[in-house]
Amino acid sequence: MKCEFCGADLSLEAEYCASCGQLNKHAQQHVRDMKRYHGEFENTKKGVYTATKKYTQITVRMVVIAIMVIAIGLIWLLYNQAYDIRRSIKQGAASRKEEEYSIIMDNYLKEEKFREFSNFCTQKGIEYYYADGAFEKFVPMYNAVYYYLYTLDSMMDLVSIVEKEEGNERYVENVCEYLNYFYQYCDLENFSYYANAKRQENMDAIAAMNNNIEIMLQVYCGLTEEEAASLKGLSEAKRTVLIEEKMGNGQ
Amino acid sequence: MVNKIKEQMSDAKTWVLNGIIILLAIVMIASLWMLIEEFQYAFTSYYNTESSFVYAMEAEDYGRVVSMYHDNVQNGYEDKKDLQEYYGVAKYYEAAFLYHMYAEVGDTIRADIQKSAMEEAALQMGDFAFLRSQIDEKLGLK
């Protein structure tokens, strides 16, 4: 730019003209402008920092909340799966010893040690709904043995209670209920889907349990031998009525 | 004025989010606690204690004693020293129950097996040996 007084060359930063010594008004204006621009820049920068900081604070919090919600969801998922996880671990261990456990279970059935069979299955996690491989042939036996033992236990309950009160009907109902389930699971036709379900060992075990149940009904419920033998062929309702009648007559 | 309102709203949002975080932290801690308890229940077997056996025997509910014994065996507590006498009572009652069954129908082989089991269980009954006669009477055994 040129000095307005002498026309010499002037830079914007020069406060006075080097040639004539006059005050450079443009330089003053420039300094004022630069101060103003600097102030505006600092204000804008401060504003951006503040806005970014607030935005970051909110964003970070939102991310933390999202992570915590996911973590809580995972915790609840694990909570609901706790028993399934335990079952999987046990079943995994049982699968690795299929042959060995299979022999043990067969021996229990052959020796009519049904309580030991049931305990073994529970302890090793060999369960009805998840049986496969070498355990598939035992599928009909799990629930048959389970309800056989429940029938036996409920009869032991009934026999041991102190007084025959009105509330004792519950014990008779228990016996009938478990007996109904036992007969249901004794029918190997229901398990024809499973490999070797109708094998001789299973049929022998079921015959033994049936025999014990018939004896129990004769001795503790007062049924005749014929009545006990024909009980399986009756409907659930008739079965219950017969047992309740016999138990009532015995009181 | 507008900027001030905007600033105040922004502070309010932060406070609300802080509150939500604190709430979620409490829920997470409680959930973790429940998860640990659930896994403890799932992976630990519980057993029927002496007081449960005493209660059942006082009520002469020997069927219940037998069930509790088998529950304990199933859960791996067959060897608990302080419960052996109660187990003896359970085994005796069960053996006597079965003995009576087989004896009544003339199955002497099975009856003899249960008779041996009764004698063996009687030895395990210890201080509860006096209950033999009560159980025999209950089952109609001579």
Low-confidence stretches of chain A: none
The string of secondary-structure elements of chain B, in order, is HHHHHH
Structural class of chain B: mainly alpha
Mean pLDDT of chain A: 85
Helix-strand category of chain A: mainly alpha
**Quaternary structure of the protein:** heterodimer
Mean pLDDT of chain B: 89
Distance between the termini of chain B: 102 Å
Please state the CA-atom Rg of chain B, rounded to the nearest Å. 30 Å
User: What share of residues are in beta strands of chain B?
Assistant: under 5%
What does this structure look like?
The complex is a heterodimer of chains A (251) and B (142). Chain A has 251 residues and is mostly helical. Chain A is built from eight helices and no strands. In chain A, helix 2 (98-110) runs antiparallel to helix 3 and helix 4 (139-160) runs parallel beside helix 6. The longest helix of chain A is centred in the N-terminal third of the chain and has 72 residues, at 25-96. Chain A is rod-shaped. With 142 residues, chain B is mostly helical. Chain B has helices at 2-43, 50-58, 62-74, 84-105, 108-125, 131-139. Chains A and B meet through helix 1, helix 3, helix 4 and helix 6 of A and helix 1, helix 3 and helix 4 of B.
Provide the descriptors you would attach to this structure in a database record.
heterodimer, A: 251 residues, mainly alpha, 8 helices, 0% strand, rod-shaped, B: 142 residues, 80% helix
What is this structure's SSE topology?
The complex is a heterodimer of chains A (251) and B (142).
Chain A: H1 25-96, H2 98-110, H3 114-124, H4 139-160, H5 169-186, H6 200-221, H7 225-230, H8 236-250
Helix pairs in contact in A: 2-3, 3-4, 4-5, 4-6, 5-8
Chain B: H1 2-43, H2 50-58, H3 62-74, H4 84-105, H5 108-125, H6 131-139
Helix pairs in contact in B: 2-3, 3-4, 4-5, 4-6
